[in-house]
Amino acid sequence: MKTQKNPNQIGNVYEVVPKAKQIEAMNWLQANAFASPTWIVNINTLKNTGYAGYTETFRNIQVRHLNNLLSLPRIGRLMDNEILGADTYKALDFFKDLRKGIWKEAASATNVTIYRRNLQRAYIDRMGGLMTEEIKPNDRSATYYNAAQSDLRALVRGELNALKKSLVTAKATAVNTETKYHYEDCIKRIDLILNPIK
Question: The pTM is what?
Answer without folding.
Answer: 0.86
